[in-house]
Design a protein that fits this description.
7-stranded mixed sheet, 5-stranded antiparallel sheet, 9 helices
């Protein structure tokens, strides 16, 4: 493309949030939003297409040759021309996109993305931000032990963060019930203080390293709990309330790492999202496993991350 453009892919149903966050938009192709300039932080993007090329390609064969000349691995995004997309994908080297076992390293080979804008015109980006095809973080799921699917959010957040709790670490899990996140933390070998007004599922309450404290997350005094390596919060509350909670814990200096869900009821509150995104050294993202919510992650410096270190 002659002027610099970046592509931002939204999860299904979140295109409007992404467009609103980006402000100036050049074009939208299905869930792919093109905005001017180099890539910038965009919480609602599950994958960012850096420097996409607008290619005139007279045939499937020509398209395959053009993409292969750039690199080996490509993944399609299709919002139209599905048959043409399938034919091009078949003409390219096979990309294995097996679900990831939590704890295994994410694939590091570059994975590009392409989309047909019209017959004979392809948009392709060799460099994309997500290691997962179209940002869809697929895991080998445990359909037996965790009491709900919320654990997938924490798996995804820790995988993208590149570190996770480990033996000997203390985790505070706020809004813990029924216990998916507590199960993730305890399974990693950490001690978990689970706080919720509602009880944990019996199978989670029975875990050795999990203790449940009944009560409100907002009534806790950091000094009563003491130092924690990870503060995880999945409480359903307004952004402003989460903000005050985080500020109290950040101010206490007792927490090294945060993973918190910022939930929206009704309209998305972009102003609050921007405030969380601007907190120094943190990251705000819409995970593939997030619903109408964003995940705010703030980590201690990598050298101090402890636990199991980088994935
Ligand atoms: C989305 S669920 C959490 C799911 C949990 N992360 C898991 O993996 O199972 C939200 C939880 O927040 C709890 N909650 C709501 N208000 C709370 C408060 N003031 N203090 C503590 N927990 C609260 C609810 O009882 C509910 O269990």
């Amino acid at each position: 493309m002659s002027t610099q453009v970046t592509g931002y892919l939204a999860a299904p149903g979140f295109e409007a949030d992404l467009a609103a966050e980006l402000g100036e938009v050049i074009a939208q192709h299905g869930r792919l939003v093109l905005a001017p300039g180099p890539a910038r932080p965009a919480a609602w993007a599950i994958n960012v297409w850096h420097e996409p090329l607008d290619l005139a390609v007279p045939s499937i064969g020509a398209a395959a040759r053009a993409l292969r000349a750039i690199q080996r691995n490509w993944w399609p995004y299709a919002f139209q021309l599905h048959r043409r997309t399938g034919l091009l994908a078949e003409a390219l080297p096979k990309v294995s996109a097996k679900p990831l076992t939590f704890g295994d390293p994410v694939p590091t080979a570059p994975l590009g993305s392409f989309v047909w804008l019209e017959t004979g015109r392809l948009l392709a980006a060799a460099h994309c931000s997500s290691p997962f095809p179209n940002g869809e973080a697929a895991f080998v799921e445990d359909r037996v032990v965790p009491p709900n699917r919320a654990y997938l959010k924490l798996w995804e957040a820790l995988t993208l963060a590149g570190c996770r709790p480990g033996p000997g670490q203390r985790c505070l899990d706020l809004g813990a019930s029924p216990g998916g996140w507590s199960w993730v933390l305890a399974s990693a070998g950490a001690e978990v203080i689970a706080v919720d007004k509602a009880p944990l599922a019996p199978s989670i309450a029975a875990l050795d390293r999990v203790s449940w404290h009944q009560g409100s997350a907002f009534a806790l005094e950091p000094a009563e709990i003491g130092p924690v390596d990870w503060l995880c919060c999945d409480v359903i509350c307004y952004p402003e309330r989460l903000w005050r909670l985080i500020e109290r814990w950040r101010g206490s200096g007792l927490v090294r790492n945060f993973v918190c869900t910022l939930k929206f009821q009704g309209e998305t509150d972009h102003e609050w999202a921007a405030r969380f995104a601007a907190l120094p050294g943190s990251r705000l993202c819409h995970l593939w496993h997030n619903k109408h919510e964003l995940t705010w992650i703030s980590l201690a410096s990598p050298a101090d991350s402890g636990g199991n270190g980088s994935l």
